[in-house]
Amino acid sequence: MAIRSLLVANRGEIAVRIIRAARELGVRSVQAYSEADANSLAVRLADDSVLIGKPPAAKSYLNIDSIVSAGMKAGVQAIHPGYGFLAENGEFADAVEDAGMIFIGPEGSTIRSLGDKVTARILARDAGLPTIPGSSGRLDDLAAAEPILAAIGFPVLIKAAAGGGGRGIRTAANREEFERLAPQAIMEAEAAFGDGGIYVESYIRNARHVEVQILGDGEDAIHCYDRECSLQRRRQKILEEAPALVVPSDVREELCNAAASFARSVGYKGAGTLEFLYDQATGGYYFLEMNTRIQVEHPVTEMVTGIDLVRESIRIASGERLRIRQEEIQLRGHAIECRINAEDPSNGFMPNPGNVESVAIPGGHGVRFDSMLYSNCDVPPFYDSLLGKLAVWDENRPAALSRMRSALGELEISGIKTTTPLHQALLADKCVLEGKVHTGFLDEWLAETAARLK
Questions:
Q1: Which of 208, 242, 285, 341 would you label with 48, given CA atoms 20 to 30 Å apart?
Q2: pLDDT for the residue 138
């Protein structure tokens, strides 16, 4: 059934992105909004809008009953979850389907099996993907970790079995640290995800974070090549690039084909991402997890492949088979994305909501700014600090770096502090320019160069 109307169950820049994709497909969009977002750009752009609750996310964007009721009241055929909030909640997907609407994404059962990192690791291993040495299943108490620690040694990562976003993760250099940090990880996981299960795995030093974008229609799946997301602050991505910098072409083909094969093996439907760690010392790669939704950093993949991932995911949810064959997808040039957050990097990245007095958006060939901003808009204090994503494309990485520096210089957001100065400083750093980074690089860099951001 062709989707002719959808409810956007999200906010900010991704809501705007979905509304625009829907409009291009001739699909009517209805924006779900909280009281804090009544004057948001998404509400302004959508064909219609519906209030779902008070500002706190628990009373609006995380309220399954309210969102499903809003979709039914608006008479839409489908609901798009975007990313974050309920995007990877299997119960939400089930509730949408039970109400007679289409969930734009995988089935609830798929979300649940892949959202549990331990289950996903087992599925990946069974499908032939390499996984980092560690526990084969959930560890519900610390005693169960003893034989694993004896086998893999230290250092180790302690990870929450459920959830994501860098929460519920600790690094233990020795047994004493493990005994101190593991209970913290369990408590944080229980508080954040309602699930205190953990697992442990070897810690790979100076690893790169590489991920593969896939599209599946429930029967077949294709990959749209890889991205690199190694520049992270406290495991939160800051800057992304496509393709990944250090992956040789033969390994890239092997890695991406393996990701698509895994998506086929689980009958994946929609847009999704497999995340891997790449070991620079050995050239090996290891499956980390799968994100069962559109990623924040999807623009860089769209820029190097020419594929509109949001539009394709709506088509797939309508029941269409994949329109693109794997052999038709070619990498072209290089793309970089900087996440622009309402945070003050000179003051410990303190969130900085408030009124945006004016906005000057950079332009020109190969420049894209996905954002929620307009002059005299308000950035509420209740949600994630992401304002927008500045992305550029050029024929090679040096040219893309030059274009990004120019675009950052043109971007003006007055009235609040943003992370633009952080990106300008990073793109002047020799190691970043040469691609000599790893997942711990940015935290180390910030500790050494915080004065540059003041």
A1: 341
A2: 83
Q: What is the mean pLDDT of the chain?
A: 94
The burial of 428, by beta-carbon neighbours within 10 Å (0-12 exposed, 13-18 middle, 19 or more buried), is given as exposed
Neighbours of 363 (CB within 10 A): 10
Q: Given 28, 293, 339, 403, which residue is catalytic? A: 293
pLDDT at 118: 83
SS (H, E, C) 287-332: EEEEECCCCCCHHHHHHHHCCCHHHHHHHHHCCCCCCCCHHHCCCC
Average of pLDDT values for 163-176? Answer: 80
The Cα angle at residue 449 between residues 445 and 450, in degrees rounded to 5:
105
Q: Is the pLDDT of residue 443 over 90?
A: yes
Strands (E), 292-440: 334-341, 343-344, 350-351, 354-356, 358-360, 367-371, 377-379, 386-394, 412-414
| Helical packing angle, 64-74 and 90-98, nearest 10° | 30
Q: At what angle do helices 108-115 and 90-98 cross, to 10 degrees?
A: 180
Angle at 308 between CA 304 and CA 310, to 5 degrees: 130
Q: Can you give the three-state secondary structure of 46-71, one letter per residue?
A: CCEEEEEECCCHHHCCCCHHHHHHHH
- Cα–Cα dist 273/259, whole Å: 9
Cα 8 to Cα 50: distance, rounded to the nearest angstrom: 10
Residues 281-321 pLDDT 10s: 899 999 999 999 999 999 999 999 999 999 999 999 999 99
Find, among 364, 207, 391, 374, the residue nearest to 295 by Cα.
Answer: 391
Q: DSSP of 161-205, one letter per residue? A: SS--TTTTEEEESSHHHHHHHHHHHHHHHHHHHS---EEEEEPPT
Of the candidates 51, 216, 439, the one whose C-alpha atom is nearest the C-alpha of residue 11 is 51
| Mode of pairing for the β-strands spanning 334-341 and 386-394 | antiparallel
Contact 354, 385 (CB under 8 A): no
What pLDDT sits at residue 186?
84
Output the pTM of the full model: 0.93
